[in-house]
Amino acid sequence: MVETTISVIKADIGSLAGHMIVPDFILEFARKEMKKGVETGVINDFHVTNAGDDLELIMTHHKGEGNAEVHELAWNTFVKGAELGRKKKIYAAGQDILADTFSGNVKGMGPGSAEMTFEERKSEPIAVFMADKTEPGAFNYPIYKIYADPFNTAGLVIDPNLHDGFRFVIQDVRVDDKPFVELKTPEESYDLLALIGSTSKYTIKKVYRHDGMVTAAISTDKLCYIAGKYVGKDDPVAIIRAHSGLPAMGEILEAFTLPHLVAGWMRGSHIGPLIPVGVKDSRCTRFDGPPRVIGLGFQVSNGTLLGPVDMFEDVAFDISRKRAMEAADYLRRHGPFMPHRLHENDMEYTTLPAVLEKLKDRFSAEEIVPK
Ligand code: 13P
Ligand code: 13P
Ligand code: MG
Ligand code: MG
Q1: CA distance linking residue 22 with residue 5, whole number of Å
Q2: pTM beyond 0.90, yes or no
Q3: Which residue's CA is the closest to the ligand 2 atom numbered 1?
């Protein structure tokens, strides 16, 4: 049986009127490049969309994860798209392109990616979640809810296939030496939460069912560690399989109703609510946000994509959006104060250290009495 791979590769290669949306001409260009990719047999099928200012390439193929041809197709689409963007002087053209030459995989080069390979089931519903103005750790909360919280996912209690729990692969994004650890729920839920509650350090990379069936993949790429400075946030993506022995699509979507607080927003330096929105509202405005997530549902069908369903474009999420805007309004009144502004440790790669540097020599051992 031939396996299908879903590769979601994304980058911010430039946007309209600030960090708001990917311009139509870039989306059209990307669709043309993807079509060529299908014609030349690099990929099987694709869907191109935008999460705010991030260009999202959702691709299916049979070449496995980390495939050089697939990654090169995405990379070249970003590089050529950015060039078009520079000509038209769109904002921050080429923002996430942090390398000069392609080296076989987009990892470590700026773009983010999540990939998953499986043998298609009799029916294969999947969700692709794409967020703007936040970071990979933003998915820790909903992913935990989906696979480990019986108050979110009824199947954990009702469905015998889910009863034996899930295996979480966690990545420490701040270390290169031994970054990965596997934890199993429900047995190790408290240990798992001890790690993934620290969203800027530990991110969920993949989730497998107890029997080893892959069920979720999340991008964990951190731009600042590649660039060594703030160039934009690491707006993340996640791929999740649903139903038939896995959480139902409705259980997956339920995890986004809070809306929980995430790091990102203005200058990647603020805490704000993650608002679930339809593609038509995938546009970060107020204070460059608030952070948003879109969710597209597909059926993977013999290596092709049927759909999408724009899953958050539904009145069922109106209450979450309202709650999010109330939280956003409340948080905004804190201005430059923590915890609306991120902790100093998380501001390391922003422009704040340059400001603090100026004040460095004015500190004194003795209390200063102004004369
Ligand atoms: P599955 O058995 O296909 O997971 O569907 C369960 C269901 O009824 C969803 O609400
Ligand atoms: P992006 O990471 O979405 O480009 O946003 C950058 C930013 O600084 C917004 O204020
Ligand atoms: Mg941007
Ligand atoms: Mg973005």
Answers
A1: 26
A2: yes
A3: 232
